[in-house]
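Problem 3 from the worked examples.
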Amino acid sequence: MIYIFSAFIVSLLATLGSLFFSEVMQFVPCSLCWYQRIFMYPLVLIFLFNLLFPDEKVFKYSFPLVVIGLFISIYHNLLILKIIPETLSPCVSGVPCSVDYLNYFGFITIPLLSFISFLTILILLISYKRRVS
């Protein structure tokens, strides 16, 4: 249960952080940021319901969301790092996906925080799956 609780905390912090950046700091999310939100926000509810009503199928429900969100965050980080050319960016109108709103210590960006969140949740889910199997 500690793994699901930890995953719940990480997804909750990621969700609140993204809402803080957009609603308080007034950072307009790009398309890739929205896609990552689409896969992060439901995880809060999935993990919360699993904490209230324990079910071993939580891995089956959350794993696809985490993996897809992780791949989008990897793509976004590669775009920010200019490894992927900006011409392959899905952000054709509005805020460009390569905009770097936050850059602490020269490397901590919002897409990096998203990647760390998805990766942490993935590790917790795999640990949970090994524990219950």
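Problem 4, a separate protein:
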Amino acid sequence: MSLHVFGAIVTGYGCAANNRGETEGNITTLQKLLWQGQVHTTVSAEAIRWALRYYWQRSGKPVNWTWNDEKDDHTWQDPKWKGWASEKGDTFTDDDVLGFMKAEGGKTEGEKGTTTKRRGVLEIARAVSTTPFSGDITFNAKSGEKDRTSLYGTEIHATRYQYGFAMTPERLRVKSRCLDVLNGLVSLGEVAGNHSRFLFDFSPDSIVLRVTQDPAPRILYCFSECEGVVAVPELLRRTMAADIQATELYIGGPIAQDSDVKKIGAHVFSGVKGAVEAATKKIAEELKLPKGKA
């Protein structure tokens, strides 16, 4: 049996918006989807992955893909992933955790194309707002010389976001890198994709981690919000139904103070960092990582 690490995260409350761009109708939109029959805003898994890689870069982890803020572009340290050619080759954290793929067509007629790829070990679900989008828009004016985009509107959504993730550490070239994932996700200060950015604290307000040999997460999108109160009714139901073993759960943040959560027998912590630290020690123990890796 393999060890699996699953997580469910809900952010703090904030106001989400994209920076202005030249869009149809001159309205800067948020991404949306239908969620349980209502319109919700959403943040892509790619944006979260981008932020995680950028966090590793800024914290000094060895990453193959590095972002240059001055050039507004990225560079590769090893664009051909040569380190993966041998079992003992040097590899980078981001390639190991997030995977990579490069497809090239044949250079001459009749020549077959090639694909260099590695499936990502870390899978991240799309972040979805915990409350429906009511359609709030602000209207603004650009300073300086005026043009056709000087007057513009911006969709905004005051809400929280929840998302989940999954990984099997034994699929990593370096197993201890799963701990870099947890340390990164608990520290994400901002998430952005492409050219559009907004400051929204994407660090967990509450977190549920599950360290288990069960291959199914069973905790994704377990948060619900009603009149500003965040709860985990589905998590409680599954735990009481014995589909989830409470001892596999590490719960941190305000949700851990819920009286029903305290009763199920999970590892509960007042803060999210405490939950991650305890889960990290458990993972290191299960994987028999050398001391100092947790």
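Solution to problem 4. Helices lie at 45-58, 93-98, 177-185, 233-240, 259-263, 272-287. The chain is about 20% helix and 30% strand.
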